[in-house]
Amino acid sequence: MISFSVNRQHVNLDIDPSTPLLWALRDHLGLTGTKYGCGMAQCGACTVHLNGEAIRSCVASVSRAEGKEVTTIEGLSPDLSHPLQRAWLAEDVPQCGYCQSGQLMSAAVLLRDKSRPSDEDIDEAMAGNICRCGTYPRIRKAIHRAAAMMSTGGAK
Amino acid sequence: MSTLQMERRDFLRLSVGSGGGLLIGLCVPGASKLAVAEERSESAFMPNAFLRIGTDERVTVIVNHSEMGQGVYTALPMLLADELDADWSKVGYESAPVDPKYNHPVFGMQVTGGSSSVWSGFEQYRNAGAAARTMLIAAAAQRWNTDPATLRTESGAVLDSTNRKLSYGQLAEAAAKMSPPANVTLKDSKAFKLIGTPVKRLDTPEKINGKAVFGIDVKNPGMLTAVVARAPVFGAKVKSFDDSRARTMPGVRKIVAVPSGVALIADSFWQAKVARDALRIDWDEGEMRAFSTSQMMQQFREQAKSPGTSVRRDGDPDAALSQAAQKIEAVYEVPYLSHLMMEPLNCAIDLRSDSCEIWTGTQFQTVDRAAAAKAAGLPAEKIQIHTTFLGGGFGRRATPQSDFVVEAVHVAKAAGAAVKVVWTREDDMQGGWYRPAFLHAIVGGVDASGNPVIWRSRLVGQSIMAGTPFEGMMKGKKYDPASVEGVDDLPYEIPNMAVESHNAQVGVPVQWWRSVGHSHTGFATECFIDELAALAHKDPYQFRRALLTKHPRHLAVLDLAAEKAGWGKPLPEGRGRGLAVHFAFGSYNAQVAEVSVTDGKVRVHRIVSAVDCGRYVNPGIIAAQLEGGAIFAASAALFQELTFENGRLQQTNFHTFPVMRMNECPEIETHIAESNEKSGGIGEPGVPCTAPAIANAVFAATGKRIRKLPIRMTEAA
Asked: What domains sit in chain A, N to C, each tagged with a CATH number?
């Protein structure tokens, strides 16, 4: 039995502890917002937070989450109020949308650590998240916009 | 088995947008705070196949094209909503079921491809909105006992001359009793409120909170998950397999041979995948067991030495070649490419004795339904397809053979339960249906004044159409139009021209890949015109201009891109600019790329892309498609290549078939030329110019010619 919290709710899972956290979330907890893209930490579509740090859940076994807190895209904000989500709406970022959960979860950790990230900071934090549709220019703009919103006290 | 201790348990009902009103019961214990159950809006008024208006004021537009990122769930509703005078904040979308009434009006089947959704729906969706508006006005006129001609519509309501108002929701039930008008008058373009404006995409909210349902996310009651061990070599057949270990593994339900390999059916994806790793299969590898792409390209080079099937012949190319003052020959080569959608292929099936339901992200509903019916042994009308969001398509999800759907039907037959077949990234990359490798051998010459007098292109590559149900599109020609598009209509005014095609016979399954033939013809022709300009000692921009005097739309985008990019203005040391212009899918695109090369590594700093796509619907989406098209093409130009040795694909995942990343992405600037011409496409036209613009910029920066993709400076001429 593996016990951890997902989006502030306690869960117990009785599954093979070597199951990747990604598949525990998707197949056993029904949280399909976290996506499978490569299975080898190459694309970032599966990015979630483990105790606040961005990890690639496709290569992290579920046992690593034991006693810890997992946050997925479903837990980023219940009502699209996170500054990144508001910035994503304003910049019309997604195309197919498949990679966007991972992009947002990586960007959320970046903004927590750096309130006004430079382009170089964005390059570094986001280089692990592939977007095949090519939304990078808009992701960059949206991260800057979200940072600006947050620095002005989350102005609506 | 999982046990969950949650604050509360809940069953969410997630609509996957089926016109048949089907709701999938998705058990998401405790997730009630995180996701909002979506119910279908009321449907008091359904004037036609494309629209429902509820008494709750919701306007639901049924979209007959698949949403794969290109924005059809916004652009097509805009067309309808503008004519309807709907309140845009009340407008939603739903994917159409498979039904002839949702056929593409030109292609005659339900399909998303050829960059055609907006132009093919331009009148269709406006007519649907206008017809509904007429019926709503008629309902209001009846209610008020007045002449319909005295009424007007505004933001989801009918108003009379005294500004008395009835909302569409209030009128919906009465409007449903009105007869549809025989004819409708469409708005003058000056009256458009939505069309032509950068309306925000309707599908963004559910794509940034994890709610959007892609095929891979579908979960039906009792559904199992399967992975398939497919042939390591194209055409290989299973001789025998040993599943003694795999079948004892947890969660494994069935292991069965299917036509494409061996299916592992388990309770969950990971269990199926782990069990597959424990399976031993003995393959009869067949004719492709020794196949290598390096040998194939050598054969292509040999084939290009002899004349191919004539596609175009102007003037007297042979005489012109012998008389040209200066000549140049170049061979351009491009590799097989994977579409590499972020969402790997998948297909969920519920196969019953008398019917079958399919949930998948497909671009090809009509073809998939026919293929699934055949595989299931059911009449086509017993097959329902629920089109989910597509996590990218780029042509891969429009397979003439419906490979991923047909396979899933076979797996479902064996499973005896609802099942979803999921492809791993490796499965997806190795599963075939690639952009074909191509070789262009081009010879050109200029006269003593540097004017081009002869151009001869010989192409060698596999046909996409031949041998498929779409062979008819070759219209009896001995060449495949999809192989030569973009060179057969080369716009440059050159008096003697020959285009010849060799159809290579290779056992690698190939398919349309974003921009199809243009993905290689744009590269070869726009690089070679640059080589001719250099031969004539002329500026590549001015050289093109002089040859395009009869093509004003080419010229206009070329001028726009050159002007915005600052063509001719000084650049920092080590940088070079290159340009390209190309017509594809009804639209004209020109791009200027700015690059530098350090230690053999090409860095693209900036791309300026200008398009004339005729009358446009949403400039925000057009800009996004130009940005995305350039990045998609730059990934291929800089990094991507599929190679085979001993019949086996050498690439498996993103580490061996890289995609451009944030830190490698250039600044991209897009410009739209105003135009009143018929709408063209936008999903694909932004692709062809990128590779040649980059290659020509590399020449400007280094003096080295790029004739092979992906770009490797060690192979530059």
From this structure: 2-75 (3.10.20.30), 83-151 (1.10.150.120)
What CATH number does the domain located at B45-200 have? 3.30.365.10
At residue B73, does pLDDT exceed 90? yes
Interface with chain A: mutation pick from B209, B388, B514, highest number of A CBs within 10 Å: B209
A49: contact with B, CB 8 A cutoff: no
How far from A72 is each of A101, B71, B134, CA to CA, in Å?
8, 26, 47
Give the model's pLDDT for residue B470.
Answer: 78
Q: What would the mean pLDDT of A49-66 be, rounded to a whole number?
A: 98
The interface pTM score, or ipTM, of the predicted complex is 0.98
Q: Do B31 and A74 touch (CB under 8 A)?
A: yes
DSSP letter (8 states) at residue B97: P
- Which architecture does CATH list for B293-337+434-715? 2-Layer Sandwich (3.30)
**Cβ–Cβ pairs < 8 A, chains A and B:** 224
The confidence score (pLDDT) of residue A90 equals 98
For residue B179, pLDDT beyond 60: yes
Question: Does B30 have pLDDT greater than 60?
Answer: no
For residue B26, pLDDT over 50 is answered with no
Across the interface, of A38, A80, A127, the residue whose CB is closest to B209 is: A80
Facing A92 at nearest CB: one of B28, B204, B630: B204
The answer to whether B664 and B545 have CB atoms below 8 angstroms apart is no
Q: Got the DSSP string for B35-53?
A: S---PPPP-SEEEETTEEE
- Who among B219, B392, B425 is closest to A96 (CB)? B392
Pairing mode, strands B346-351 and B419-422 = antiparallel
Determine what percent of chain B is predicted with pLDDT higher than 70. 94
What is the domain partition of chain B in residue ranges?
1-40, 45-200, 215-286+345-422, 293-337+434-715
Residue B207 and residue A94: Cβ atoms within 8 Å?
yes
State residue B360 phi and psi, 5-degree precision.
-165, 160
Domain B215-286+345-422 in the same topology as domain B45-200? yes
